[in-house]
């Protein structure tokens, strides 16, 4: 157990008094006084203050002496007050004094506090065990809380076409607001400030506050004045049938432009270049593009496109005499439609329905004029051909199915059906040898005979000057002047009846003379003229 010097001194002083040695008493008292002085706490040093608008951070050096500080107290004073506004203990260096008023002057003191020394000396005789000794307060240090930055409203527009824009802002302190634009002189202002008239370009708005002579930080907002409307140029409409538009915007490079597009009286839609318009009905159409920049300036451009009705060759409605999709000539049109295609069905036409038209290949489809070919290489029956002998002037559209059956017998391109199927005029692969009903319709057209019904026979001869380069017996040539049909010749089976049964004449096929429309059977191995047609 340690014995403090002050207690030893008191004991010696007592002995000295009993023995009459006054000098020893004085020595003991002097030692006690020195002991107390040695144990006193020093005031904190190195005090530093860091003020914000509503608080101050206090830092200081720790008191380390013969008696170290166990804690500290910080007192807050008004700038001219003697009584503390607030005492904070225990307080640690780096702590904060909060809830201050922005722009106000305060003072701060710091005091060290230590544990009580033992009670052996006279200075401690009136202290109760466990109480504290304190150092002197430090000198009062003055500081000023800062002013907050003025808050500029988010409602202000970074780009505007208004040359005198308004700016909105706010501050927790009333009054004392100062505003200016660019390098202008600051003037007092309220929470709404309207600028002078500004030229197009980039500008900056500034605002700060002054309270009790203290100027706060400056808040700034950069903005752009722009009243130049977008200029839309080079507005073009691309070719159909699926139309598109393209354009350029030349007045505001680097500026965000939003576009809307409008066709005729339809509602405008958001768009960009290029813009897909799609198919257009026949007629005149107006296409308009509007561009708007972030400042609200807008520019507009319009153009007109005239869409012609599709021709027969491009998928439009056909009339007799039109050029067809296969670059042939339309010689037959049916408003109600007819079966067609490789299976003679009601779904083989355009769009999956009936066919409505027949076109005939030009006279030069296989050379300078129609070729002369045999009907087949085999004098035998052809499987898959329908008996149309009882309906010699009907069954329009049946020729395609007949031609396929003939080619499959087989018969190549040196035969009538083979050559017709091999033709690809207009990049179409559905040309074929017409049956007798289709030749009947073609004969009427070639000779200029008005159409009455499908069954009305061709019985007019136009003479030498026939349409489409068709040949007949009146033209000198080394072959018979008839055209092959894809219909075979049907005869009564001599071994049948009654009733009679029709069978193919294995050596005969139907032909038609274009010098009056007569129809008869021809010998399959004999040469005859050939002209390809197609249905659509």
UniProtKB/TrEMBL annotation:
The name this protein goes by in its record? Unannotated protein
Q: Which organism is it from?
A: freshwater metagenome
């Amino acid at each position: 157990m340690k014995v403090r010097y002050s207690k030893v001194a008191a004991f010696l002083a007592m002995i000295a008094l009993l023995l009459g040695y006054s000098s020893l008493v004085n020595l003991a008292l002097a030692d006690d006084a020195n002991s107390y002085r040695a144990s006193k706490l020093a005031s904190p040093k190195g005090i530093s203050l860091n003020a914000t608008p509503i608080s101050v951070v206090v830092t200081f050096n720790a008191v380390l002496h013969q008696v170290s500080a166990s804690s500290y107290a910080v007192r807050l004073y008004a700038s001219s007050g003697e009584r503390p506004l607030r005492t904070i203990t225990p307080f640690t260096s780096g702590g904060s004094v909060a809830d201050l008023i922005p722009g106000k002057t305060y003072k701060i003191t710091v005091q060290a506090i230590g544990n009580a020394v033992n009670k052996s000396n006279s200075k401690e005789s009136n202290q109760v065990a466990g109480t504290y000794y304190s150092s002197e307060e430090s000198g009062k240090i003055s500081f000023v809380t800062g002013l907050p930055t003025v808050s500029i409203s988010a409602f202000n527009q970074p780009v505007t076409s208004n040359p005198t824009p308004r700016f909105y802002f706010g501050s927790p302190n009333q009054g004392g607001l100062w505003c200016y634009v660019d390098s202008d002189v600051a003037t007092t202002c309220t929470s709404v400030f309207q600028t002078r008239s500004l030229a197009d370009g980039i500008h900056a708005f500034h605002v700060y506050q002054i309270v009790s002579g203290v100027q706060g930080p400056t808040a700034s907002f950069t903005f752009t004045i722009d009243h130049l409307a977008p200029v839309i140029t080079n507005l073009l409409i691309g070719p159909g049938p699926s139309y598109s538009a393209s354009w350029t915007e030349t007045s505001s490079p680097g500026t965000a432009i939003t576009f809307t597009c409008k066709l005729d009286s339809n509602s405008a839609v958001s768009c960009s270049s290029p813009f897909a318009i799609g198919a257009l009905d026949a007629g005149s159409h107006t296409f308009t593009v509007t561009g708007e920049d972030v400042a609200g300036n807008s520019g507009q451009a319009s153009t007109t496109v005239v869409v012609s009705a599709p021709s027969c060759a491009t998928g439009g409605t056909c009339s007799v005499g039109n050029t067809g999709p296969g670059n042939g000539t339309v010689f037959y049109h049916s408003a109600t439609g007819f079966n067609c295609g490789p299976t003679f069905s009601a779904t083989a036409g355009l769009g999956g329905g009936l066919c409505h038209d027949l076109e005939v290949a030009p006279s030069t489809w296989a050379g300078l004029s129609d070729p002369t070919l045999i009907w087949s290489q085999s004098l035998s029956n052809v499987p898959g051909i329908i008996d149309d002998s009882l309906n010699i002037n009907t069954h329009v559209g049946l020729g395609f199915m007949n031609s396929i059956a003939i080619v499959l017998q087989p018969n190549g391109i040196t035969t009538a059906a083979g050559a017709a199927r091999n033709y690809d005029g207009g990049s179409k692969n559905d040309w074929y040898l017409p049956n007798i009903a289709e030749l009947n319709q073609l004969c009427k057209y070639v000779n200029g005979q008005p159409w009455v019904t499908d069954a009305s026979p061709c019985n007019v001869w136009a003479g030498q000057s026939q349409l489409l380069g068709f040949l007949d017996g009146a033209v000198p040539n080394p072959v018979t002047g008839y055209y092959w049909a894809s219909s075979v010749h049907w005869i009564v089976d001599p071994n049948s009846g009654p009733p009679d049964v029709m069978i193919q004449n294995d050596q005969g096929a139907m032909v038609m003379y274009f010098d009056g429309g007569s129809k008869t059977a021809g010998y399959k191995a004999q040469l005859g003229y050939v002209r390809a047609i197609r249905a659509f």
